[in-house]
Every structure is written in structure tokens, then in C-alpha cells.
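User: Structure please.
Assistant: Input sequence and predicted structure:
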Amino acid sequence: MKAVIVDDERLARQELKNMLAQFKEVEIIAECADATDAKEKINALKPDVVFCDIQMPGKTGLELAEEVSGMVDFVFVTAYDEHAMRAFELNVIDYLLKPVNPERLTETIKKLNVKESGVKNENNSPLSINDFVYIKDGEKSWLIKLKEVRLFESEGNYVRVYFDTKKPLILRSLNSLETRLDEKEFFRASRKHIVNLNYVSSVENWYNGGMNLKLNDNKEIEVSRRQAVKLKDLFGL
């Protein structure tokens, strides 16, 4: 895939270029120091993806993405997380925070490869505890780090997501979510619940060999007998 790097800092461009060198499928065809030059290069060279900073002299990376919307995929690479909400509203492929984590960059390239291959991308890539997740429920939307979610609760074809004082519903199955979550952080307590273990305040033995988990918001989650055995095996209890 043909790629353009856009960043007003030369060293930042070089660092990202060095990191991308390990991916043989990525060909860097241009580097730009501002959005105006980048727009010209995008129109002329027709790249597949743009790795773009956000805060730059003149136009921002967000403004550039809006101007060339639909022409090329964007991956934002920035030192600031406050623009993430707007970025995901623009349907960018990914949002990477500087300094870029090599494992996160690998995940980004996997997403791009899926898109380039023409295979339907159902967004099933693994999530780390510090990844941003975009949650939309009707007219309301939130961008939070996954570690802020304390509980996923199945409700028919939907999943209720518990974070802070919010409990929005998303159209997603609990099974599909489970495949993306780190089992050492998120535990499938039952058919209806996936619990962020960092929010568990107490564990009690329960009926028929099961367990009862109390979260720090005082919500109680019953763990089935089979899952209780798995929890003990997982953490050596």
C-alpha cells in the first residue's frame, strides 16, 4: 500500500518512517510538513493511506481529512488525545498516540491490510486496556479508554456498557466482544456479563460452587460454577 507521512517535525516523520520500514507491504511515497503540501501530494499521487499529525502550522490534520474525505484512508499520529472523538467521527482507520507503540502500529497495519484485501472488516481486532473505544447510543456518543469500562451486560441483541455514571447500549453481541478483550483484564463471568477485573472489590463463594463478584459501584455479578473454576485456574486461586 502506498503511504504519505504528514508531520511538521522532521524527526517525527523520520521516526515513523523507520517504524514503518518493517512492514514490507507499506511503501512511503511522500513526506509532507504541512496540510497544504499534503493535499497536493494526495491529489497527485493517489496514496492508499495518510499517516498524519493533527496540530500543525496552518491547517490541522483534521481539516485535511475533511477536505480529502473519501479519497484516502487516514491514520492520525499525535501527542494529544483530545481530538480522538472528532477523528473517529471522520471514520479514520486508527488514532495513535506519540510515542507510537510498535504493537499498536502493528494492529493498525493489520486493519489496513484487511481493508486493502477487500475482506469485510468487522472490526474484530484485539483491544488493549489502554485503547480508545468509540461508543454511540442514538444521538449521544463517547470516546473513552477501554480501562474505564467496568462491565459489559448482554441485553438481547445489544450490550449495555457501564462506565462512569453512563450505561449506553450498543448493537453488538457479548460473544463478539469477548474475542477482542484481554482475558486477564476482562472476565466472562456468565452468559450475560463480562467484568473488568480491575473494578472487582470483593469475591465470595456462592451457591453450587459458583462465585459472587461485587464491583466498586456495589453492583453484584454472579459467576457460574463452570466460570468460577476457570477464574480460579486463570489466577491460581
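Residues 2-117 form a domain with the Rossmann fold fold (CATH 3.40.50.2300).
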